[in-house]
C-alpha cells in the first residue's frame, strides 16, 4: 500500500516536490498566496470596522455626501498594477523554462486513448505505467487516438493537453524516486476519472532493467494476447476478470462462442469474425445495452493480423472462467 | 417607440373596486401575462423562469456533491454510474450558465428596473422584449429535452472532438444554446437602445445609476460576443450532421479551433454574468450606507474597462492546450489587466461605507458577503493567470473553486441581495428581515465550507470532472459536501422568506431603504405606466434630503 501513497500531500497545500519545476511553481504560488493575504486582510478589516463603527444606531447620523479622493484612487490602481506585473513576469519566466526543451532527453512516446495511457520507450518497450529515470530529463511526445486528454502529474507540477491530430510535447526532470499519480485532466467521456496511472521514478540501474523486461514480448499466444490487452488500451473498457460486467464496454469473460444481442436487433455469434470486426470496425455491430457508451475507436492499421489473433486467443482462453455476474 | 411619460389617465374601474391599480392588478387573466408587453411583467416572468432553472441546477449540484462523498473507486458501491455523473455535471453547468446566471440579473431584475430607473414607461422595443422571453422558454425546452433524452455528457463546454462522437443529444442542446443566445442578444440590444435614446432630460451619462452603467456594459458584450457562440454551436451541429471537417481531427479539422471560438464568447460571458452583479452591489452599498457612492466615475469607467478587456483574455482557458508561447504569454499579460478594474471597484465599495450610516439588513449583508467572496474569487484568479502556477492548477478543483467564488459567491449572492433589495418594489410586500439575515449567514458559511476545501483539493492535484477519485482526497470532498448541504439549506431559507412575504408580508412603503434613484419615487408596486408624470432627475446618489418617516415605515424626500 505504501508506495501508492508516496505522493500524498507533503505540505498543507502541495504534494511532494518531485521534479525540477516544483520548487519554482511552489515559490510563486506561495508569494501570490501572501500577496493575496496582504490584500485580503485589510479589506476585510476595513469592511468589518466600517460595519461596526458606522452602523445605524440611535443618536448617530453619518454623512451622506459622496466622497472622492484622487490620491487614494490613483494609489489603489497603481500599486496593484505593479504587483500584477511582477506576478505576470515571474509566471512567464517559469513557463518559458518549462517550454524550453533541453538538448539531451530520454524520449517517451505517450499515447492517450479512452481511457488508458500507453507509453513507448526508445528500446521499443511499451507499458501502461510511465517509467522514468531519476535525475534525467524526460521528454513526452504525446498524441491522442480519439478525443482530448491531458497529462498531469501533480508531484511534477507539469501538465499538458493531448490534442488529437497533432503532437504535443512536454518535458520534466524527476528528482525523487517513488510512485506518483498520473491523471487525465481533460474530460474525455465515461471513464475519464478512471484514466489514472502511475509515474514510477527509478534509479538508472533499475530503470534500464525495467525497460529490458518490458521489451520482451511473451512467446505463448495467449500470454501475448493478454500482454497486448494490457498495452493496447483494451483494458480501459473491457474487463477480463469475473467482476467483468462493470466496464464501460462489454466484458470478455465467458463470452466466447455465445450469441451476442445486437443494438439494431438480431444476434451474432461471438467468434473469430466477431472479434476481428469489433476491433477493426467497432461501430459495425453495436452490442445491445451499450448504445450510449462512448464510442470505441477503430484499431485498423494499429494492430497487425497476428496481434488480433493473439487477442482472440486470449479472449477464447477466458471462456472457462466463471461467467460475469450481471 | 414612443417615450410615454406624459400624464396617463388612470382607468376608472380601479377606483370603483376600491383597489389600488398597479402593474400586477392592472389586467388579469393568463393571456394578460402571456401576451404582456409590460417590462415589469416580463421581468417577473423571467424571474420565475430563472429561479426554476436555478432550483433544477442546484438540485443537480447537490447530487454531484452527494455522489462525491465517497471516492467511488469500487463502482458497485457508487451512487451514480460514471455516465450518470457525467450527465449530471454537464446539465448542472449548462443550466446554471445558460438558463440561470446569464439571464438572471439583466433579464429578470434588469427588465424590471431599467425603464423605471430611467423614468420611462417601458423599454425601447417592448415586443422584442417579450420575444426574447419566449426564446428563453424555447431554449429551456431544448435543455429539458436533453435532460430527459438519453443523456448529454459533453460538459457545458461541448469540447470537440468528444462532442462530435458522443452519443448524447448534442445537436438538441446546441440548438438550445443557439436560441438562448438570441434571447440574450435581443435583451442586450433593447437595453442599449433604451439607455441611449430614452434617458430623461437631465440624466446625463454621469448621472445614471451605476446599475445602468453595468447593464449597459453587459449589453454591449451580449450583442458583440453572443453571435460568435451562435456560429460556433451551428458549426458544431454541422460537424456532427454533415461532417464538414472544421473541428474533427479525423477530417483534418482542429479541435483547438473550437476552444478559441467557444471561449471568444464564453470568456466575455463571464463578464455578462459578473458586471450586472457589480452594478447591484454599487446600488446596495450606497443605499444601505445612506451615503453617496465613493468614486462614481471610477466605478463607471471600470465597468466599461472590464467589458473591453474581457474580450481580449479568452486564451487563458487554453494555457495548457499547446498554443504558441508568444500567444500564451500575451494572453497571460492581458488577463492581468482585468484584475485592476475589479480591484478598484472593491476598494470603492468599501470606501462608500466610510462615515456613512450603515444599516445591516438582509440586502446589505448579502452585499457585504459578495465583497468578501468576490475578493477571494478575484485574488485566486492571480494564481491561474500566472503561467507557471497555472500549469499545475489548470483543470483542477482550484479552477472549480475559483469560478464558483466568482459566479456563485459573486453573481448569485449579488442577485439574492438585489432580489431582497427590490423585492418590496416588485411585489409590494416586505419580507421578514430577521429570516433574511439568517439566510445570508447560512449561505455565507455554507458557501465557504463548500468551496474553500476545493482550493486545497486543486492544489493537491485533484482533477475536475472526476466521478471517482483517489482516496487521499476524501476528507476534503466530504467537508465540501457538508458545506453544499448547508448552502442548500441557506438558499431554501432565503426562498421561503420571500415566499412567506408574498402571503404574510407587511405592505411595503414607497421607499423602504432610503434610495435616491428613480425607482424609489415610483409607487409600490409600480403602476402599469410607471410614472404618471415625468419624474425630476437628480443625483442618483444624493441622500441628503432623504429621511426616515416613522408613519409610513419608509423614507421620504424632504423638499430642500
How is this structure best described in words?
The complex is a heterodimer of chains A (326) and B (560). Mean pLDDT of chain A is 87; it is low at 1-6. Helix content of chain A is 33%, strand content 19%. Chain A is α+β, with helices and mostly antiparallel strands. In chain A, the strands form three sheets. Chain A has a five-stranded mixed β-sheet with strand order 3-2-1-5-8. In chain A, strands 4-10-9-6-7 form a five-stranded mixed β-sheet. Chain A folds into two domains: 1-216, Sandwich (Immunoglobulin-like); 221-320, Cytochrome c-like domain (Cytochrome Bc1 Complex, Chain D, domain 2, Orthogonal Bundle), CATH 1.10.760. The longest helix of chain B is centred in the N-terminal third of the chain and has 36 residues, at 82-117. Chain B has one domain (37-557): Cytochrome c oxidase-like, subunit I domain (Cytochrome C Oxidase, Chain A, Up-down Bundle), CATH 1.20.210.10. Chain B is mainly alpha-helical and 560 residues long. In chain B, strands 1-2 form a two-stranded antiparallel sheet. Chain B contains 16 helices and two strands. Chains A and B meet through helix 1, helix 2, strand 7 and strand 9 of A and helix 4, helix 9, helix 10, helix 11 and helix 12 of B.
Amino acid at each position: 500500500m505504501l508506495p501508492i501513497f508516496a505522493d500524498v500531500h507533503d505540505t498543507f497545500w502541495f504534494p511532494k516536490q518531485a521534479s525540477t519545476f516544483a520548487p519554482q511553481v511552489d515559490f510563486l504560488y506561495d508569494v501570490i498566496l501572501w500577496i493575496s493575504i496582504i490584500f485580503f486582510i485589510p479589506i476585510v478589516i476595513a469592511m468589518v470596522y466600517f460595519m461596526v463603527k458606522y452602523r445605524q444606531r440611535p443618536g448617530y447620523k453619518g454623512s451622506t455626501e459622496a466622497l472622492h479622493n484622487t490620491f487614494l484612487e490613483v494609489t489603489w490602481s497603481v500599486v496593484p498594477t505593479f504587483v500584477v506585473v511582477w506576478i505576470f513576469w515571474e509566471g512567464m519566466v517559469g513557463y518559458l523554462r518549462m517550454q524550453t526543451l533541453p538538448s539531451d532527453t530520454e524520449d517517451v512516446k505517450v499515447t492517450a486513448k479512452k481511457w488508458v495511457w500507453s507509453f513507448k520507450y526508445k528500446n521499443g518497450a511499451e507499458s501502461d505505467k510511465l517509467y522514468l529515470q531519476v535525475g534525467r530529463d524526460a521528454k513526452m511526445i504525446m498524441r491522442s487516438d480519439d478525443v482530448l486528454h491531458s497529462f498531469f502529474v501533480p508531484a511534477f507540477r507539469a501538465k499538458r493537453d493531448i490534442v488529437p491530430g497533432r503532437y504535443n510535447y512536454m518535458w520534466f526532470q524527476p528528482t525523487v524516486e517513488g510512485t506518483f499519480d498520473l491523471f487525465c485532466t481533460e474530460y474525455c467521456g465515461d471513464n475519464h476519472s478512471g484514466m489514472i496511472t502511475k509515474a514510477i521514478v527509478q534509479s538508472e540501474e533499475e530503470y534500464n532493467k525495467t525497460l529490458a523486461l518490458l521489451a520482451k514480448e511473451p512467446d505463448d499466444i495467449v500470454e501475448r494476447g493478454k500482454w497486448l490487452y494490457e498495452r493496447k488500451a483494451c483494458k480501459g473498457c473491457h474487463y477480463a476478470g469475473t467482476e467483468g460486467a462493470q466496464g464501460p464496454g462489454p466484458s470478455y469473460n465467458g463470452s466466447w462462442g455465445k450469441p451476442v444481442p445486437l443494438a439494431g436487433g438480431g444476434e451474432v455469434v461471438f467468434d473469430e469474425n466477431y472479434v476481428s470486426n469489433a476491433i477493426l470496425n467497432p461501430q459495425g455491430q453495436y452490442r445491445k445495452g451499450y448504445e450510449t457508451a462512448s464510442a470505441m475507436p477503430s484499431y485498423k492499421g494499429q494492430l497487425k493480423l497476428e496481434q488480433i489473433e493473439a487477442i482472440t486467443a486470449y479472449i477464447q482462453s477466458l471462456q472457462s472462467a466463471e461467467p460475469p455476474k450481471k | 417607440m414612443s417615450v410615454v411619460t406624459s400624464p396617463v389617465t388612470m382607468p376608472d374601474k380601479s377606483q370603483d373596486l376600491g383597489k389600488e391599480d398597479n402593474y400586477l392588478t392592472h389586467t388579469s387573466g393568463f393571456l394578460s401575462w402571456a401576451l404582456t408587453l409590460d417590462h415589469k411583467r416580463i421581468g417577473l416572468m423571467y424571474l420565475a423562469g430563472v429561479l426554476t432553472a436555478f432550483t433544477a441546477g442546484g438540485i443537480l449540484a447537490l447530487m454531484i456533491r452527494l455522489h462525491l462523498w465517497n471516492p467511488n473507486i469500487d463502482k458497485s458501491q457508487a451512487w451514480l454510474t460514471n455516465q450518470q455523473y457525467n450527465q449530471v455535471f454537464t446539465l448542472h453547468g449548462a443550466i446554471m450558465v445558460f438558463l440561470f446566471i446569464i439571464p438572471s440579473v439583466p433579464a429578470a431584475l434588469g427588465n424590471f428596473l431599467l425603464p423605471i430607473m430611467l423614468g420611462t414607461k417601458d423599454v425601447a422595443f417592448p415586443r422584442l422584449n417579450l420575444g426574447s422571453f419566449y426564446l428563453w422558454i424555447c431554449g429551456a425546452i431544448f435543455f429539458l429535452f436533453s435532460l430527459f433524452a438519453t443523456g448529454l455528457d459533453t460538459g457545458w463546454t461541448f469540447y470537440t472532438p468528444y462532442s462530435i462522437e458522443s452519443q448524447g443529444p448534442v445537436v438538441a442542446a446546441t440548438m438550445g444554446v443557439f436560441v438562448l443566445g438570441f434571447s440574450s442578444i435581443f435583451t442586450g440590444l433593447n437595453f442599449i437602445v433604451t439607455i441611449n435614446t430614452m434617458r430623461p432630460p437631465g440624466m446625463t451619462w454621469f448621472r445614471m445609476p451605476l446599475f445602468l452603467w453595468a447593464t449597459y456594459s453587459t449589453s454591449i458584450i451580449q450583442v458583440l460576443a453572443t453571435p460568435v457562440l451562435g456560429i460556433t454551436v451551428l458549426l458544431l451541429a454541422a460537424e456532427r450532421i454533415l461532417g464538414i471537417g472544421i473541428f474533427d481531427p479525423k477530417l483534418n479539422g482542429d479541435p483547438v479551433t473550437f476552444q478559441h471560438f467557444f471561449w471568444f464568447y464564453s470568456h466575455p460571458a463571464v463578464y455578462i454574468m459578473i458586471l450586472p452583479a457589480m452594478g447591484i452591489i454599487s446600488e446596495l452599498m450606497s443605499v444601505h450606507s445612506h451615503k453617496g457612492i465613493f468614486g462614481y466615475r471610477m466605478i463607471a469607467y471600470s465597468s466599461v474597462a472590464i467589458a473591453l478587456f474581457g474580450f481580449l483574455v479568452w486564451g487563458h482557458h487554453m494555457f495548457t492546450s499547446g498554443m504558441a508561447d508568444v500567444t500564451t504569454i500575451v494572453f497571460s499579460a492581458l488577463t492581468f489587466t482585468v484584475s485592476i478594474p475589479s480591484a478598484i471597484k472593491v476598494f470603492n465599495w468599501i470606501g462608500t461605507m466610510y462615515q456613512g450610516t450603515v444599516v445591516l439588513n438582509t440586502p446589505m449583508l448579502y452585499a457585504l458577503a459578495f465583497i468578501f467572496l468576490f475578493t477571494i474569487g478575484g485574488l485566486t484568479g492571480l494564481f491561474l493567470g500566472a503561467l507557471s502556477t497555472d500549469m499545475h492548477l489548470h483543470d483542477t478543483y482550484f479552477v472549480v473553486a475559483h469560478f464558483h467564488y466568482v459566479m456563485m459567491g459573486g453573481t448569485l449572492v449579488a442577485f439574492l441581495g438585489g432580489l431582497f433589495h427590490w423585492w418590496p418594489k416588485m411585489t409590494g410586500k416586505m419580507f421578514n428581515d430577521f429570516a433574511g439575515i439568517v439566510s445570508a449567514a447560512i449561505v455565507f458559511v455554507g458557501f465557504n465550507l463548500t468551496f474553500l476545501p476545493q482550493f486545497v483539493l486543486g492544489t493537491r492535484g485533484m482533477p475536475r470532472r472526476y466521478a471517482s477519485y483517489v482516496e487521499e482526497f476524501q476528507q476534503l470532498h466530504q467537508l465540501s459536501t457538508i458545506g453544499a448541504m448547508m448552502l442548500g439549506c441557506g438558499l431554501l431559507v432565503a426562498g421561503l422568506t420571500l415566499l412567506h412575504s408574498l402571503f404574510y408580508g407587511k405592505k411595503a412603503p414607497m421607499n423602504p431603504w432610503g434610495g435616491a434613484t428613480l425607482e424609489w419615487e415610483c409607487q409600490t408596486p409600480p403602476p402599469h405606466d410607471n410614472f404618471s408624470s415625468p419624474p425630476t432627475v437628480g443625483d442618483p446618489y444624493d441622500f441628503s434630503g432623504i429621511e426616515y418617516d416613522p408613519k409610513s415605515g419608509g423614507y421620504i424626500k424632504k423638499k430642500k
